[in-house]
Amino acid sequence: MKFENTGIEKLKAEINRLDEVMHNHGLIRAGQWDYDRVTYDRKFEMKEGVFYLRVQGYATEGDVDTFKATIQLMTPLLGKHYYPHGVEYGEGENFPASLVTQCKKILDEVKNEVSKFAE
């Protein structure tokens, strides 16, 4: 599921500050990056399954591995994990309403914080 029109997709920010804000909201970059792209994930384990809130971005300046990059954020996603195949984001997925509400709150908080220093 895509979280359209959150405002996050319009933000461009320096990676170190972005990492800090995302981490404060449980969105972890860990090893999900390459030289041009980043992925921040927050895992939710519920009785309905395992879900991931995912915020992706790409470098518009610099390289991610040097920690000197400007990241353009993209439309956030919510997906359900299926072992061993991976995460599915499709419209046919059933996401608990409480989880969707929680994710929207997290994304709103992230947007408000990143907006303070975004380009």
Strands, helices and their partners?
Elements: E1 12-14, H1 15-24, E2 37-46, E3 49-63, E4 68-73, E5 77-82, E6 86-88, H2 97-115
Antiparallel strand pairs: 1-4, 2-3, 3-4, 3-5, 5-6
Account of the 3D structure:
This protein is an alpha+beta fold and 119 residues long. 24% of the residues lie in helices and 36% in strands. It is built from 2 helices and 6 strands; from the N terminus they run βαβββββα. Strands 1, 2, 3, 4, 5 and 6 form a 6-stranded antiparallel β-sheet that branches. The chain is globular. The mean pLDDT is 94.
Q: How do the helices and strands follow one another from N- to C-terminus?
A: EHEEEEEH
The description of the largest β-sheet is: 6 strands, antiparallel
Mean pLDDT: 94
Rg over CA atoms: 14 Å
Span between termini = 27 Å
Number of strands: 6
Poorly predicted residue ranges: none
Please state the structural category.
Answer: alpha+beta
Inertia-based shape: globular
Q: How many helices in DSSP terms?
A: 2
Please indicate the percent range of residues in DSSP E strands (runs of 2 or more).
Answer: 35-45%
Roughly what percent helix? 10-25%
Quick overview of this protein structure:
With 119 residues, this protein is α+β, with helices and mostly antiparallel strands. The protein has two helices and six strands.
Key words describing this protein structure:
119 residues; alpha+beta; globular
